[in-house]
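Thread: Modeling a multi-component assembly for a lab meeting

Hi all, long-time lurker, first post. My supervisor asked me to bring a structural picture of a complex we are working on to next week's group meeting, and I have zero experience with this. I have the sequence lines for every component (679 residues in total). Could someone generate the structure of the whole assembly? Inputs are pasted exactly as I received them:
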Amino acid sequence: MGISLCSMEEGETVFPIEELGIQIYSMEELNFIIYEHPMLVMDGFIKDSLVRFIEQFSQPMALHIEKLRKDKAASEEILLYILRNSLLYNKVEVARYKARLTSIKNLSNDEYLKAKADYMFELGKYGKAIEYYNKILKVRAEEKTNRKFLAMIYHNMASSYANMFLNEEASYFYTKAYALSKDETILKKIYYSMILSGNRKEEDMTHFLSGIKEESLKAWNEEYDMATVEVSKIQRLSDIENALDMDRIKRHKYFTQILTQLKETYRSIV
Amino acid sequence: MAPKILGIDISDNGTRLMYYGSEEGFSFPTLIGRKKDIEEWSIGEQAYAAALSGNTVITDKLYSLLKNDVTTTLGHTTYRSIDIFTIFLEYIIRESIEKSGGDFPEIIVACIPKIEKDVVEKLYDCFTALGYLKENTKIISRPESFIYYTLSQTKEIYKNQVGLFYLSDISLSYYELKINRTSSSMTIYAEGRDLDEAFNLDILNTPSGTKLADKVMSSVAAKYLDKKLFSSVMLTGKGFDKIDWGENFIKLICNRRKAFVDADLFAKGASYRGLDLASEKNLFPYKIICDGRLDTNVFVNVEGKDKEWAYFLANAGEAWYENEKNLRLIPDNKKGIDISLISADNKKKRNVFLPLDFMPQRPIKTWRINLKTSFKDEKTMLFHMQDAGFGEIYPSSEKEEIIEVGLWE
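Re: Modeling a multi-component assembly
Sure thing. I ran the full set together rather than chain by chain. Output:
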C-alpha cells in the first residue's frame, strides 16, 4: 500500500467507542478500529449512530449500509464493505481481515466468549472480561469435561479480579484453577493474592502453606520483597511522600487530584 | 456590462497604464512629490513643477523602494515604502480616469520586471488598500505580459519565434518567445534577460551618439536574431519612441520579419491578461512557461481502492508564487514520501524522498501527516510536514519539519 489521501476535515458528529474510552472523528480512525479490533466490532458495533457518523463523510456508503441492515446482512459483510471502500487498506489486507473474521466465526460459543473476554482483559476492561467469563461458567461450571478449558477460565477470572485489587476473589478463583489444572505456577499467585487480601482468614493461609515446599516459599518471598523495593522507587510514590510535607491546602488539593485520577482509572477498568 | 480592465507596467524607468480597448495609454515617471509642510501629493509633471518651485520633495525609484522595504522621511513624517507606493498608484489611476473619463477599473493586472514573492504580496496589499478585490487583481512578469500581448495579435505574428527589445534609460532587455505545438496542445515559452549593452538615451541627442546607438543595437540584434527563425520582432520602451536613429538596426530586424513598435506593449499585455481574468471562459487555453510560471510538474503517487493516481502538488504553467497546497496523507509502507518532478517538456525527471524521521513511534497506518507545499522562489519548493495525530487513538505529537527542495539541484 502506498500513500493514502485523507480528508482535511473532521466530522461534526463524533462516534464514541466506550470500550476503548475514546471518540473517533474520521473515517481513517473508524477503518483502523475495525481492522485492529475485530473482536470489538463483530457484535453490536453496526448501529444507527455509526451510520449517522459515516453519513457525514459518504452518503452513498451510509445508504448502502442501511440497505444491508434492512436485508439483515451479517455484521461481517458490513464491516468488509466499509473496509473495501476505505483508502487505508488494500485488497490483500482486506482479504487477511476477512480470514480473521471467518476464524472468529468458526469458534464455538464458549471459545468465542473466551476470546471476547480475553480481548477485554487485554484492553484493561477487567470488569467486562469477568462478565464474559461468567457467561461461560453459567453453562460449563458443572461439566466435568474439558477441565483444561475451565481451568483457563478460572485462572483468567482470577487475574481480572487481581487487576482490580479484589484479591480475595482472585485467591478464590486461582484456587479453583489450581484444583482443575494442578499447575504449580498458580500456587504462587494464590499465595500473593492471599498476602494482598485484607480479609483472609489465618487458618486458610496456614492450610495453604502446609502444602508448599519451603524452598518455593523462600523464593516467592524473595521475589515479593524485590517487587516491593521496585515499587517504592516509582516516582508517584516519592511525589506522594513529598506531598505529605506540603502545607494543608496544597496537600488537600494534590491528594484530591490524585484520588480523582485513580478513581477515573479504576472506573475505566471495571 | 463588461468590467473595466486596467493593465499597468511598473518599473523604476516609468509606469504605463493602458485600459483594455483604449487606443492610448498613460505614462508616468515612477516618482511622487510631497509638499514639505503639509501632506499633499503630486505625480508626474506636476511633481516636477512643484519641486522646482521649492515647496515639494520628490522621491523617485519607488519600485526599488518597495522591493527593498525602505522607509522614507518626508516633511516630518516617516513613510513605509508600501504606503508611498499605494499613494502613487492611487494618484496615477485617478489621473488616468480624469483624463479618459468613465469609471474606476474593476480588474487590474500589473506587470513587473521580475517576479519576487514578497514584492508580489506587497503589490497585492497596495491594491487591496485602495479597495480592489484580490480576486480581481493580478501581478505578472514582463515575459508573461509579452506572451499575452503576442497571443492577442494575428497568428502570423507568432507563427515562428517572436523577439522583443526593450530600451529605456540605462536599461536594455531582450525577450524571446517560442511556441511548442503538439496535436493536442500548445505551450508558450518566454524568457527575458537584461543586456550589458544598455546605454544612456541622452546619446541619441547627438549624431555621433545615434551612430553609436545604432551600432550597438545592430550588434545586439545580430547576436540574438541570427540563425533563428522569427516571425516578428517587437520594440518597446522610451528608447524606441523615435526610431529614426537606428537605420541599420531597423533594416536588420525587418529582414524577412514583421517588426513594430508599441510603447505600451507591457501595459497592453497586462490588460489582455485582465481580459482573461474577467472572462468566465479561458481565453488563452495554453500552457505558459515564463518568469513567474512553473516549468515543472510536481506530484505524489497516491493509492486508494486498489487504484493509483498522481496527485499534483504543482502544475507547469501555474503561477508559483500563488501555489500553495494543503493535504493530509498517510504514507504507509515507507517512512517517507516520494515526490516526483517532471519538466514541462518531459525531458527532465527526478524523484525526491522526504523522510519522516520526525514522526513518533506508532503504527504507520496511523501516521497522518499534514503536508503544506509552497514555493520560496521559482526554483525552490517548500514542504512543511506536521504530525496530524490520529484522533484520540494517537494524539498529535505536534512535531513538524520543513524541507526545502531545489527543483533541479
